[in-house]
Amino acid sequence: MAKKKKAKKKAPKAGGAAVDEHVLDRLYSVIDSRKGADPNTSYTARLFSRGRQQIAKKLGEEAVEALIEGVRGDKGKLVGESADVLYHLLTLWAATGVKPGMVWDELARREGLSGIAEKAARHN
Questions:
Q1: Residue of 55, 90, 53, 83 lying closest to 69 (CA atoms)
Q2: Alpha-carbon gap, residue 28 to 99, rounded angstroms
Q3: Which one is the CATH code of 24-109: 3.30.160.270, 1.10.3210.10, 1.10.287.1080, 1.10.3720.10?
Q4: Distance CA 39, CA 22 (A)
Q5: pLDDT in tens, 69-96
Q6: 2: exposed, middle or buried (C-beta count within 10 Å: 0-12, 13-18, 19+)?
Q7: Predicted TM-score (pTM) of this structure
Q8: Where are the domains of the chain?
């Protein structure tokens, strides 16, 4: 018998309409809740206690590991390293006050734009 898909949680959108909450939104919430937690019991709390520079450094390390696996072509390892990159990126967002919705809005703004045109517009 086929398994039923788990229903996605609903989260309110800035405009008031409900949208499906994404796993990255849920992960961000967990990460953000670790601020001020005991660094001896939480890796995320340990990162926060070490500051933004350490979080950024870890993000860079994970990004390099992801690009190495991308060049090697090992899909399984690239998937794992990609998850690490996303986790550390979300941790950096939480440390700097960037909310996922801010990034989702920026991506939506860019949707349908030529990458070349979008990049040129940033230089004006």
A1: 83
A2: 8
A3: 1.10.287.1080
A4: 27
A5: 999 999 999 999 999 999 999 999 999 9
A6: exposed
A7: 0.77
A8: 24-109
Q: Kindly provide the b/e burial profile for residues 11-33, where b requires at least 16 CB atoms within 10 angstroms of the residue's own CB.
A: eeeeeeeeeeeeebbebbeebbe
Contacts of 111 (CB under 8 A, 6+ apart): none
Q: How big is the chain, counted in residues? A: 124
Own/partner pairs for 91-99, CB < 8 Å, 24+ apart? 91/31, 91/44, 91/47, 91/48, 91/55, 91/58, 91/59, 92/52, 92/55, 92/56, 92/59, 93/28, 94/28, 94/31, 94/32, 94/35, 94/48, 95/47, 95/48, 95/51, 95/52, 95/55, 96/52, 99/28
Is pLDDT above 70 for 118? no
Alpha carbons 57 and 95: distance in angstroms, whole number: 13
Residue 52 tokens read as 């933004």
